[in-house]
Amino acid sequence: MADSSEGEEEGKLSGGNQQLAVDEELREMAKKAAWSVSSCKPGNGVASIRDDNLDSYWQSDGAQPHLVNIQFQKKVRLQLVVLYVDFKLDESYTPSKISIRAGDGFHNLKEIKAVELVKPTGWVYISLSGTDPRETFVNTFMLQIAILSNHLNGRDTHVRQIKVYGPRPNPIPRQPFQFTSNEFITYSILR
Amino acid sequence: MEAILTDCVRNSLQHLIYRNAIFMCERLCAEFPSEKNMQLLASCYLQNNQAHCAYHILKGTHMAQSRYLFALSCFQMDLLNEAEAALSPNESCPEVPNGAAGHYLLGLVYRYTDRRQSAINHFNQALSLDPLLWAAYEELCVLGAAEEAPKVFDEGASLCIQKQYIHQGSTSQSFQAQNEEHEISMNRSLGSEDVSPRKQKHIHGHNLRDVSGNHHGTISNQPLNGGPTTSLPFYNTPSPMAAQSQLSGVAPPPLCRNALPNGPSTRTYGADSTPRVTVNTAIPGPRRKFVDEGKLRKVSERLFSDSGQRRSMRLAGESVNTSSSTSIISGNLISHSSKYLGGCKSGMLSSRSLTIRKGQSWASENADEGGHQEICDESRLNISNSSSSPCGGNGSVEPEGAIRSSGALSSSKVIGGASDVLSLLRLLGEGFRLSCLCRCQDALNIYMKLPQKHYNTGWVLSQVGRAYFELVDYLEANRAFSLARIASPYSLEGMDIYSTVLYHLKEDMKLSYLAQELISTDRLAPQSWCAMGNCYSLQKDHETALKNFQRSVQLNSRFAYAHTLCGHEYVALEDFENGIKSYQTALRIDSRHYNAWYGLGMVYLRQEKFEFSEHHFRMASQINPLSSVIMSYLGTALHALKRNNEALEMMERAVLADKKNPLPLYQKANILVSMENLDGALGVLEELKEYAPCESSVYALMGSIYKRRNMYDKAMLHFGLALDLKPSATDVAAIKAAIEKLHVPDEIEDICESSD
């Protein structure tokens, strides 16, 4: 998160990483979520942001803001959103102002994070953690990524990949804390 | 013409030229379409790993041997119903064909169709017909139904063996003279009379091996010579021999002719070792297509090494055979052995080294061409390899030695030999039985009683490693397995477990090295892919790990452990549904595979289906009653069911079962906290702190207890210590939140329950 993107100041993110590198404690959460978008051009639909292919992209086809909705089957703990955007290829289609909202459903979404991208190329990491330690994670049923504006005042937007990460659950069920020492971990599982 | 063709086929089979064998055998069948010739053709196909061809050839045949071969093909093609029908006694043939081997195969069919009791019956019958059918005993152990080894391999068994050999002796009576006369030269100038009894014995050896080979389902190891001739209910009947001697009148006996192309020097080798090689190579599968005459030797080497890996389970059986030959041969060959006793490198077993040296020495005497010498040397290498771990076709040594002895030796030698073999079997069997019953410490004690040369074999060492693994002593297990790797670097027996040991030890470098090595040794073995999967799993790449384990399952769908590992990965990916399916598949294959019961228990614990969880942990605990880990989880499940007293009792038992396991103490503290016995919990945790000073969760739990007792300074101190020990991000958040709310009492509940 902190190491994820260069030049972070007051919600402004520039650069981007060519390699997707995420902390080992996190795992991708949204495989089983229901994904939808506010609008799309035929052939560049919602599937394009989840196909692990950086050459394909989702292209909106309507009025701003462009929305990506991620609905989970149960309440999940989330910590990180990662986007792949490419200013070099997409130019005025590249998102700039992004708002991330969370809630139980469409009816009560609340903005939890707002960032501005500055000519990004590559993976852009957006941490969902707040400053309070109790706000490390976002506990939610639904996440909405709203693209409020594009670079160079572009109308429609291109996003090539979106990934959503949350903490791995404790490998040992029914425990208040995760084990850290070898003595404990060795005995804590059979295999 | 029939004789020549038959001979040619056998010759080709012995030289592993299956293509030629199949072609010639087809000519033979075209010319003389008798069922015996069909059997020969079928066994050619079976050896060439083309069970489906054998299946079509033998479908609808009635002779006992054909039915056995047919059943074998069915078994390999997973047509268990047909295999059962072919093997089961019917009106035309009231007995299971092929004696012990038939019973063993039928037992396997029953086992895989989940009819445990019938399987046990047939394995027991196989054992009573042939006490040296180790594979049957092994299956009994796996089913958890084996009688104590000292009872199985007892006097009765000894008598049974003696009967077999005396019977043999009488039939080969006529050749004794030559046998004695040509003690040395018999290999050099193999008379037909010499060959036939040997052949007959080889059949015996093959039969033994066949069946055991089948265990893995990938193997087709047909009675090479026995195929066409042994149509009799018991394998060591005189008929094959008679057929052979008849044959030999027409044409030189196969063994003899085998050697011809290689010149006199290799003839000795051929006679002594070819059967061995044949046997070894008869096993592995698809690679056989590489075999062509030019590359034959190399390939056979490769195959040779493969066979060790594939036929892991039978190792002990062979070691036994070997020992028998040791004792028997030594009686015969003392005079020669002294000549050839050089520095015996590594743990070569004496019998084999004897035979082999014999061959070698002749080679050096007779061979002017270096090439032959080389061949011999290579063969010796191969064989010494195989001897370091008793795998492969060492059994063929036994029949050889035995046949010589049966003719030349008095019955007292047979008795001595039989009792030697059986005493070895008693130890190996008892060790294996105990370790299957999860009485691992007892098993280890038994294994320690083995003679050094047997202890230092791949099979025994990997069994020792497995026993330590079950005892959760991963360091010792690692040691034993590394020794096993040294003893038999080509063997895959137990390497799946070894990779799991390294996984537990977090030895990622060693693990990836092992996985790479195993893959390059045999990329078609399920164990190799288990190791690879463990490697990825350790790196938290569970998706790739799952793919590797699935590959392992594809290679051998009866490999229970691979299914369990799949289950673990599904669970890590939070796909509980498929996880449960995988565990259940593992249990269908082997209901005593307690890891799968444990895995199910964990899934249900996570899904908060606590009754289910308790049930499955209890099943696991019944199979492995000494495991403190399972007890500890059983206790956790009971705690979740609010049966605190039972849970506490279970934790106490777990603590006693393994003093090194800190988990039950920690869980005990958890239970005490929920029972509001805060002082008790603190006491337990203080004790734990001594044992595992680097465990963050102990301090975190202590902190939350102190907080609850309003001892804020101490709480603060322990929370701080817990944070210093690098807990997970989730716990950091929880602990920091607790610190901030130190003076707000209600918050504490959140920490204790923010488990997932």
TrEMBL record, chain A:
Every copy of the DOC domain together lies at 5-191
Query: By its UniProt entry, which PROSITE patterns does this protein fall under?
Result: DOC (PS51284)
GO cellular component assignments: anaphase-promoting complex
InterPro entries tied to this protein: APC10/Doc1, APC_su10/DOC_dom, Galactose-bd-like_sf
Record has Cell cycle as a keyword: yes
Query: What does the entry give for GO biological process?
Result: anaphase-promoting complex-dependent catabolic process; cell division; protein K11-linked ubiquitination
Q: Which function does this protein serve?
A: Component of the anaphase promoting complex/cyclosome (APC/C), a cell cycle-regulated E3 ubiquitin-protein ligase complex that controls progression through mitosis and the G1 phase of the cell cycle.
What is the name listed in the Swiss-Prot or TrEMBL entry for this protein? Anaphase-promoting complex subunit 10
This protein's species is Erythranthe guttata
UniProtKB/TrEMBL annotation, chain B:
- Name the principal localization, coarsely classed: nucleus
Location relative to the cell: Nucleus
Membrane is among the record's keywords: no
Which keywords does this Swiss-Prot/TrEMBL entry list?
A: Nucleus, Repeat, TPR repeat
Which BP terms does GO give this entry? Answer: anaphase-promoting complex-dependent catabolic process; cell division; metaphase/anaphase transition of mitotic cell cycle; protein ubiquitination
The name of this protein is Cdc23 domain-containing protein
Q: Does the keyword Repeat apply?
A: yes
Q: Which family does it belong to?
A: Belongs to the APC3/CDC27 family.
Write down the Pfam families for this protein, in alphabetical order: ANAPC3 (PF12895), TPR_11 (PF13414), TPR_19 (PF14559), TPR_2 (PF07719), TPR_8 (PF13181)
PANTHER family per record: CELL DIVISION CYCLE 16,23,27 (PTHR12558), CELL DIVISION CYCLE PROTEIN 27 HOMOLOG (PTHR12558:SF13)
InterPro entries, alphabetically? Answer: TPR-like_helical_dom_sf, TPR_2, TPR_rpt
Cellular component per GO, a single term: anaphase-promoting complex
PROSITE patterns recorded:
TPR
The residue spans of each TPR repeat are: 100-133, 526-559, 560-593, 594-627, 696-729
